[in-house]
Structures are given as C-alpha cells and as structure tokens.
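Figure S4 source data
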Amino acid sequence: MQTELMNQDNFADVLRGISQRRRQGTLEVRFADRAYRLVFVQGKIIEVLQPGISPAKELSKRLKAAGVLPESFELAAAGYKALWQEIQKHPVASSQLDQVSFERAVKHRVLDKLYEISAAQGAFLNFDSALLDIERDFLPSVSVGQFLLDVVSLEAEASRMAGLETPGKYLRRGEAQPQSLSEGEQVLFSLLNEPCLCEELRTRSLLSKFAFQEAVLELIEKGHIVVENDSPLLSSEEFLDKGLLDGIDASIDEAFGELAMQQENSVPEPQVLAQAVEPVLTISPSSSGPQRGAFTARVALMSARLAHNPFVPAVVVLCWVCAAVILPWLLWDSVFLSFVSP
C-alpha cells in the first residue's frame, strides 16, 4: 500500500514512479465527493473507473450526444464489447462508427477522465498492487509521459480555447485545401460540413479535450477552419429579432419613392409587423428556413405596401379607360363590315 495526500506536484510524481517501475495495480484517487480508480498494466493506464458508473454506459451517453446512437438506446449488458455488439445491430450507428473509431472513442473517454483528475486538488492517493479483474476488450494503453505533456499543453492554450468557446463564435471550413492532416484534424474537418459552435463540434467528434484543442487550433493556423462572430444560419424568428425586416422595409420604401426619414421614425416592432402581414402570407418558423423566412417576409411587406399605395387605383382606372378607347378602334373594321355585308 502507498497512501499520500494529493497536491499540485505529487500527482505527476506518483504517476511517473508507477510508469518508470512498470508497475501493475490500481491507483485510487479519492476526493470528498467522488473517487476514481486508475488501472495500470506494465506502467501504462488502461482504464479509469468510478464507483457506481459503468464506463460502457458512460461512453454510450457520449455516442448519443454525438448523434451516433439514438436517444432511445439502452445498453443491456456491461462492458465495451457488449456495447460494440449492440452498435453493430443498428444500421445507422454501424455505418457512422467503425471499429477503429470505436476504439478511439474508448481511449478518449479514458483521457477525459484523467484530465478531470489532474484539474482537481485535495484528494488522497492510494496505490494497490492487486490488479482488478476487468474486461480487456477495446481498452487503450495510455502513456503517463504523454498524458502529463497533454496537461501542460491544456493549461498553456486555455486562453485561446476560451476565446473560441465564447458565445457567438462559430467555426466553418476555410478556403485552403486540406493537406497532410493528422487523425484528429481529419475527424474535425470531415464533420465541419456547415458552421457550428466549438462545443458542438467537440461533442460530435468524440475526441478528448486535448486532442480536440490540438486539432482545432492547428486547423485554424493552417486556414482550414475560419472563426466567425455570428452564425450565417438563423431561424426566421432570429431574422426578426436582429432587425432584418427593418432593412427590407427601408429597401421597399426606396423602391417606391417614399422618404427614408418617414420610415425611420415609424418602424413597427417585429411582432406587430408579423401580425400585420399574417393574413397575406404566414411565416412558419418550423417549416421555413432562414432564407425562405426572409423572402416571404419581403413579399408580404411588398404586397401590403402596394395595397395601401394611392397610385394603384389610378393605374387601374387608366387601364380601363385605355381598353375602352383602344379596343373598339382596333376592332372597328370587323364590326362595321358585319353590319353592311349582305
């Protein structure tokens, strides 16, 4: 048995000692409200366990959040092997996740658990050389040295990642052609078919915190990912909230020769405006995309403006007068001949 109090430095020292001596066993890290058990084989970390929490079920939750598994999925048996067998029974899930991707997801779940421990303080460390009897299928082999380097990099790039995770920051593909991408970079680039939030992309990628950070920052530096302040994809309600209809209203006024100053002083509220045009053309946020919502709103506004414009009745009357004068003149010959013909 080896027991001591965990602080900022000795956790890394304990891990290095276990790794250098290539020891086997379990390192228990016990906090006041939770506990972890790190399973070592030949000095490498193969699993991180928590009492009362199944690693396979925890991984299935990550797969659900990533959209690989449906929300209704329930794992009947414990273990990664049972989870993999259940995934193969689902046509959609099996098409999205092959065995290599599944093994990567298992490894990155273990890494995220390790990052949780390294970021905390005030725990008791207890190493037991007795090796737990656990299922070895799909288990990774995490190097202690590489894990400690990951922790240093996470702390060094924390400010940059905080900037990317700011609300309103969206990631999209850049114009540069991807060349010689790493495994993590390929995963992110393949998922970025449309702009999305940084946290959403990480959830879908199933990468660990460090692997995602390293890949996304590298793609930004290469120009394969561009950071935008606002999303180009908005719902019709967001178009109303952002005042898009104010710009549409001003453009219609300019097209029909009205003064812009009159409209600036009497721009209706978005909700009142939507109610005014509802009888003409209803905008359905659930069935209309952002582009269709803007277009239907523009058509509705133009129809309402035409209906209340004073020159419209004058144009209609002029058309009737012209028809009454021109049509008889054009048809006079045929009408006259019909009367004088024998």
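Figure S5 source data
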Amino acid sequence: MPYSPRTVMSPEHTKYLIDQIRKDKIIYACEACAINLACILIFLFSATQETSIARDIMMFGSVIMMLGYTSYMGFGNLKRLKRIQQLESTLSSED
C-alpha cells in the first residue's frame, strides 16, 4: 500500500513501515556494493585482454554501469530517507 499523507495509520503500522524502509536502504546499499565489486572485476579482467576495442568497451561499460547504479541507489536512498523523516514527524506529532 503506497503511503499518502492523508492516510491515517496506527503508530505501530508507522513504526513497522519506517523499519521496512530502513531495511530496504540497507539492501540497496549492499546490492550497490556487490555490483561495484563485479564491475571492478570486469574492469580488471578487461585490462588483461589483448584486443583494444573489446577491452575499451568492457572497461567503459563497467565504469558506466558502476556509476549509473550507484547514482540510482543513492537517489533512491535519499528518497527513502525523506520518507522516513516524514513518517517519523507524523509519528512524533501523534504522540
């Protein structure tokens, strides 16, 4: 169920939602680390290749993938952080 500011939730549900969003942030950060490690390995493997065109494509592609997913994850986690802050403020105003 998507959260909208007009939806009235119980404090327990709000705390549960905050906890789940925090766990999602951790999962995305771990995924970004795994993808970055895979891209670094691809980059290192491609550096040993003899063919210059294939090497350049693999190196460029791995760097673009690493930067792209890290940016995607960072912006997504910023959005989740704002949502957590919004939920915490509604939770504190309910007390």
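The chain has a mean pLDDT of 87. Residues 11-94 form one domain.
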